[in-house]
Request: fold
Amino acid sequence: MNALVDLAFGELPMHRLQAVTHTDNTAALTTLANAGFVQEGVRRSACLHRGRRYDLTALSLLRTEWETLTRPRSWDL
Reply:
């Protein structure tokens, strides 16, 4: 995830990245949070999958937030 984020902000002219996942997808939420993504909100009952409704969490990361991250960049490793 960090390599993709670094590519988007370090090599491409991206200003904002966003991600959406089920609220109960703890693995994805943890990975995104560790990469610096911030939760923006929840869309209640927004996804129908196999007959069940799920809430969706929207997360984002801005270039300015990425620039302040203290982790090493992927190209430095």
